[in-house]
Amino acid sequence: MRKNAEINATPVCQVRMQAISDAMSLLSGKWKFHILGTLIEGNTLGFMDLLREIDGIGTKMLSKELQDLEMNNLVSRTVMNTKPITVEYSITEYGKTLSSLIDELANWGIEYRKSVYEKGNN
Question: By the number of CB atoms within 10 A of the CB, which of 7, 61, 65, 104 ranks highest?
């Protein structure tokens, strides 16, 4: 049986842990999964639509998180030629690759809530 230090030192483990670190860094924060999940379900939404859909997020935080997601090619921003100017956001093809991850996270959360509820009622 190998010790933990030896397991973590393998090249495969180092690559895997770096990939997890990269993903967590990119998707960290309270709101990114909310935004991505909303755009995956809603396709294309305006800024105010997103603000209404994501309970509890403020305008500054939504703007910052959208900029981060756009910079990382997960969300696209389209400025419409309207008066007043309208901005729409949609999930990119690359962002759609997170769909199964978001579904699994949601399923895990549902099961977790059920287990906590069941423990509380026993």
Answer: 65
CATH 1.10.10.10 fits 31-120, yes or no: yes
- Across the chain, the runs of DSSP E, i.e. the strands, are 44-46, 75-80, 86-91
What is the pLDDT confidence band of residue 2, given thresholds at 50, 70 and 90? Answer: low
Buried b (16+ CB within 10 A) or exposed e, 33-67: bbbbbbbbeeeebebeebbebbeebeeebbeebbe
Cα–Cα distance measured from residue 35 to residue 12, given in angstroms and rounded to the nearest whole number = 32
Task: Tell me the C-alpha distance between 57 and 51, whole Å.
Answer: 7
